[in-house]
Specification:
The structure holds 2 protein chains of 2 kinds. Chain A contains 6 helices and 4 strands. By secondary structure, chain A is mostly helical. In chain A, a hairpin with a 5-residue loop joins strand 1 and strand 2. The radius of gyration of chain A is 18 Å and the shape is globular. Chain B has a domain of about 100 residues. The longest helix of chain B has 22 residues. Classes of the chains: A mainly alpha, B mainly alpha.
Chain lengths: ~140, ~180
């Protein structure tokens, strides 16, 4: 009985982690490269870095950039506009990042609108992850 | 050996049960903790989504009409795009309405409503007369201290805000 419980419990935990690990930075890069019609080698970490750092005029006239909230070093924690901690964006510091495609799409949709006043292209999203996944 | 196995079994069982319990869609109120302590209401999507950028402000701080306005304009949420998929948005709004200030589920909510005009539906908790009265001794220069930033940052001073505790005893105003 106890053995059955033990194995049952392990099976449930195993399934939970399998679901959580459905996506990875590499699988998302492959998806975005395919959408953009380029090979994965056509993604550029340096273009991703530029996208992260470049400042754009925001809605209220103040300059906005990804780095504005996520800080210049994406391996460090950032701060939201109302002061809440944002966990690091770089997978090296936060392995949870880029492991859930729906979450990744949600934040690209929101933050590209806020920073660039438009959606990001598949190429830009791929470049962005290419850069972050090699950040140390 | 047998005891070891049994121990592992029990720990695993407890773990699995608590996993299940926390992953169930929840929206239950577990009683009101008094005037300055909110009932322990929770909803997974509300906690997960709203608390990504700020503390998950309690539904009891605003009336239903406010929450409807707020959830209807998430693409322009105080200057930021906080849009959600329609199913998550509807789930969160249901939870907010069920526990809103005018839902009769908390004493704090009733107090918020006491000083609210009949047709008022403010978007900011700080715009309610209840909030202004509760904070009338806090000067402007305090709100803008570096570690506070603005009145939106409840947890800067209300150290147990995330747990719904707003008792005066738990208030520590940072010096800088």
């Amino acid at each position: 009985m106890i053995k059955h419980l033990l194995y049952g419990g392990l099976a449930v935990l195993g399934m939970a982690s399998a679901v959580a690990a459905a996506d990875s930075p590499a699988s998302l890069m492959a998806q975005y490269a395919q959408q953009a019609g380029v090979p994965v080698s056509g993604l550029s970490a340096s273009r991703g870095a530029a996208l992260y750092r470049t400042e754009h005029p925001g809605r209220d006239g103040q300059a906005v950039s990804c780095a504005g909230c996520h800080t210049a070093n994406p391996a460090q924690a950032g701060r939201s506009r109302v002061g809440k901690r944002i966990e690091p964006l770089a997978p090296v510091a936060n392995p949870q990042r880029f492991t859930d495609a729906a979450k990744v799409e949600k934040w690209f949709r929101r933050n590209c609108q806020d920073v660039l006043q438009r959606e990001c292209s598949a190429q830009e999203k791929g470049d962005f992850i290419a850069w972050l996944s090699q950040a140390r | 050996m047998n005891y070891l196995l049994r121990g592992i079994g029990v720990v695993t069982a407890v773990g699995v049960f608590s996993l299940l319990a926390f992953s169930l869609p929840s929206g239950d109120a577990h009683g009101d903790g008094g005037g300055n302590v909110l009932p322990r209401t929770t909803n997974k999507a509300w906690q997960q989504e709203c608390a990504s950028c700020h503390i998950a402000y309690s539904p009891a701080f605003l009336p239903k009409a406010s929450w409807r306005r707020l959830m209807g304009g998430l693409d322009q949420h105080f200057g930021e795009n906080a849009s959600l998929d329609p199913a998550t948005q509807a789930d969160i709004l249901r939870f907010l309405e069920a526990n809103a200030a005018d839902s009769g589920t908390s004493r704090m909510g009733s107090r918020v409503m006491q000083s609210m005009g009949a047709n008022q539906a403010p978007l900011r908790i700080t715009e309610t007369r209840w909030f202004a009265r509760k904070h009338d001794e806090v000067s402007k220069s305090v709100w803008t201290r570096k570690s506070i930033g603005s009145a939106a940052n409840c947890a800067a001073c209300h150290r147990q805000a995330e747990q719904g505790v707003f008792d005066e005893d738990t208030v520590r105003i940072p010096k800088q």
